[in-house]
Amino acid sequence: MLDAVTSLIGAYDATGRYLDRDAYDQIKSYFDTGAERLKAASMITGNAAAIVQETGLTLFDAAPTLIRPGGNAYTTRRYAACLRDVDYFLRYATYALVAGDNFVLDERVLQGLRETYNSLGVPIGSVAQSIQIMKAVVVQLVGTDASWLTGPFDYMANELSEVNI
User: Fold this and answer.
1) What CA–CA distance (Å, rounded) separates 58 from 63?
2) Would you report the helix, strand and coil content of the chain in percent, each value rounded to 5?
3) What is the pLDDT of residue 114?
4) Measured between alpha carbons, how far is 165 from 143 in angstroms, rounded to an integer?
5) What is the rounded distance in angstroms from the CA atom of residue 21 to the CA atom of residue 1?
6) What are phi and psi of 162, to 5 degrees?
7) Alpha-carbon span 38 to 46, nearest angstrom
């Protein structure tokens, strides 16, 4: 698992460049927001069950067909699996938040997930919608919509929604 500094240095090393002003600014920003990111992660961790519950309630209120017969979250088992996945996304978003880097999302969450969901008949649009709802719940809890907070959620939603043409 990489953090923002390790990823940045790796990118510069791969191209054989010295760190420049942009690199220093990125590293400074990472450390400047460190205490805020840790505080946010602590708030998320302490309220994870409530965040997952609120996300599920909001999603199923917005898309009630998901929990009706024939819907992908119909039956207790499927409903629980949906909430389990929301919790999974929240946990890894928190890791990315602390690391200041989305590498962990690619490595542990997103690789092959769209294909897995498609093979299981899980509606990707609803998954992306749940991640956006979760982001809004987290923003309300933490009290900021800073890019360091919203970035991991937007990244996951965008990566899952992206379709190659």
Assistant:
1) 9
2) 80, 0, 20
3) 82
4) 38
5) 25
6) -65, 135
7) 12
68 alpha-carbon distance from chain centroid: 27
Tokens of 117: 């969901």
44-88 pLDDT per residue, tens: 999 999 999 999 999 999 999 999 999 999 999 999 999 999 999
Tell me if 59 sits within 8 A of 133, measured CB to CB.
yes
Q: What is the residue whose two structure tokens read 């009706």?
A: 68
CA distances from 114 to 63, 109, 142, 156 (A): 20, 10, 29, 11
Element (H, E) at 85: helix 76-99
Q: What domains are there in the chain, each with its CATH number? A: 1-32 (no CATH), 34-161 (1.10.490.20)
